[in-house]
Backbone:
């Protein structure tokens, strides 16, 4: 509710002695002054709780359904254990160095691949946006690339790089980069033409126009591309680790596969929870970035 | 082509037999036909016309955003174009919007902040420097846009129905602001509007545009003393005459 003050006449005209400036001028100046009273509210504990409790309730519901399925006896305990033994196992894992090695290996791969994908995806996006002929040539190909299941790249990646870190990196980059490119392009396409005209009137040309006007204006689209890119990178990475591209290094995906090989269902589910939580945390970070952009732009309801 | 003796080195606007056509389906749409006009240094000229009379096209050609089909259009001096919307960059604060115009003029970083501050004070926005556009009222956004135009160090302001979307009271305040800046800074202004009263309130001269094709049909010199009030009967009489002519022109076109 960004402009409450503007609609409420009693706030626009304070009840104290009338201001000495012309009342009309006061009307124009005072209304927005009130508007700004609450641009960034401090996080009150009440607000945090009201943000948190539906999520906790959803988690509780999910665990409840899981427990009910276990109780129903649909599958034996050693195939589908209940939440309690799984969380006990998770707590046990959290005390072991191997677990952290796995997480570290997986995160290192994810972040490296993702960072390279962002650089490549942005560079390609900029090139495609800037040069119309390039766009005509590869615009559709990039969209097609984005919807290609990245696991389909693994056979080629393994031929090219053998069973190596290089193969995983190759697929993670190919999975994420097109999404980043598409995000940047859609951001650039949705820039208001008026802002571009203003930039030109102020004397910005060529790359200057991109630097000062078009790229900042494309930021919301770019961020959603970044988020999508992360999702693709993460999926590609899990696929690569599970099919055992580098099976001697204890990554999260590899540990998941080992748990299956040993029919260790508790360990398997514990690891899945870890993978899920990492996804949620990253998503929260992107959500935070997105919200802070929209708040700055005044697009938040 | 135009060699207006003595004016060439002053800031001014000259348009000589300017024609602009757009392809429209399989026909050509004539937006401007042989438009000729002059705005002398320090003059405030308003162009009034119905919508679709090519007024905006005229300014776009003058600002170099579009090319001329035939004829000449020149702005002598530094020029800034203001749009109907304030068109501030939403990710920048009021001060940063003004500073960007300075940066694009290669003003040194150290000077930008102080200059932007001065310009915002000039349009009565002291204390609002750190607000982002969405935290400002419509009128205030236009004030920032005005400060930004001045930051382009413009001698010539081209204004394309700049206050059309505002309420009457805010618009009146901005008229006063604009007139104050015009006289104190010695600006040259070409102001496009569809509102005859606004044109008479502001302009030294009013040019009446016909529609399709856009041409200058009449020129009216406004000799009313300043400051002028929108409510004065003299102003209403002149505005009434302009509106009558606009209507005639429109009837002629429509048949």
Residues:
């Amino acid at each position: 509710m960004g402009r409450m003050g503007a609609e409420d006449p009693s706030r626009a005209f304070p009840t104290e002695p009338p201001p000495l400036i012309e009342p009309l001028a006061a009307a124009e100046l005072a209304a927005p002054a009130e508007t700004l009273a609450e641009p960034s509210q401090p996080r009150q504990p009440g607000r945090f709780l009201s943000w948190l409790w539906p999520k906790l309730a959803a988690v509780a519901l999910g665990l409840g359904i899981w427990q009910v399925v276990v109780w129903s006896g649909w599958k034996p305990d050693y195939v589908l254990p209940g939440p309690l033994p799984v969380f006990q196992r998770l707590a046990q894992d959290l005390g072991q160095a191997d677990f952290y090695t796995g997480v570290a290996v997986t995160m290192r791969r994810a972040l490296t691949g993702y960072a390279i994908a962002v650089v490549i995806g942005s560079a390609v996006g900029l090139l495609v946006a800037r040069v119309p002929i390039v766009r005509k040539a590869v615009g559709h190909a990039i969209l097609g690339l984005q919807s290609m299941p990245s696991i389909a790249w693994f056979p080629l990646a393994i031929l090219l790089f053998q069973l190596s870190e290089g193969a995983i990196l190759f697929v993670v980059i190919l999975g994420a980069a097109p999404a980043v490119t598409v995000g940047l392009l859609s951001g650039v396409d949705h820039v208001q033409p008026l802002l571009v005209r203003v930039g030109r009137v102020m004397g910005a040309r060529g790359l200057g126009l991109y630097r000062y006007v078009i790229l900042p204006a494309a930021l919301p689209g770019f961020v959603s591309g970044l988020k999508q890119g992360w999702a693709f990178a993460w999926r590609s990475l899990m696929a690569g680790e599970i099919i055992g591209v580098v099976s001697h290094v204890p990554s999260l995906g590899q540990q998941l596969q080992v748990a299956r090989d040993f029919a260790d269902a508790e360990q398997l589910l514990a690891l899945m929870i870890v993978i899920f939580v990492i996804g949620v945390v990253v998503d929260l970070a992107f959500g935070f970035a997105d919200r802070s952009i929209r708040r700055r732009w005044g697009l938040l309801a | 082509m135009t060699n207006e003796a003595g004016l060439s080195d002053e800031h001014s606007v000259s348009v000589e037999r300017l024609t602009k056509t757009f392809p429209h389906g399989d026909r050509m749409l004539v937006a401007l036909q042989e438009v000729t006009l002059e705005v002398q240094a320090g003059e405030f000229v308003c162009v009034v016309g119905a919508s679709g009379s090519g007024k905006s096209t005229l300014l776009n050609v003058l600002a170099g955003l579009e090319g001329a089909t035939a004829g000449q259009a020149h702005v002598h001096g530094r020029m800034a174009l203001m749009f109907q919307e304030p068109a501030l960059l939403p990710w920048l604060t009021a001060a940063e919007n003004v500073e960007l115009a300075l940066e694009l003029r290669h003003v040194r970083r150290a000077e930008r902040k102080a200059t932007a501050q001065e310009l915002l004070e000039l349009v009565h926005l002291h204390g609002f420097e750190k607000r982002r556009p969405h935290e400002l009222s419509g009128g205030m956004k236009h004030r920032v846009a005005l400060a930004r135009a001045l930051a382009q160090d413009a001698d010539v302001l081209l204004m394309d129905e700049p206050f059309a979307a505002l309420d009457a009271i805010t618009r009146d305040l901005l008229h006063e602001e604009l007139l104050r800046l015009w006289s104190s800074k010695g600006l040259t202004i070409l102001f496009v509007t569809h509102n005859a009263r606004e044109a008479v309130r502001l302009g030294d001269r009013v040019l009446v545009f016909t529609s399709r094709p856009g041409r200058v049909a009449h020129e009216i010199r406004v000799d009313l003393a300043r400051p002028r009030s929108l409510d004065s009967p003299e102003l209403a009489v002149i505005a009434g005459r302009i509106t009558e002519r606009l209507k005639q022109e429109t009837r002629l076109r429509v048949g």
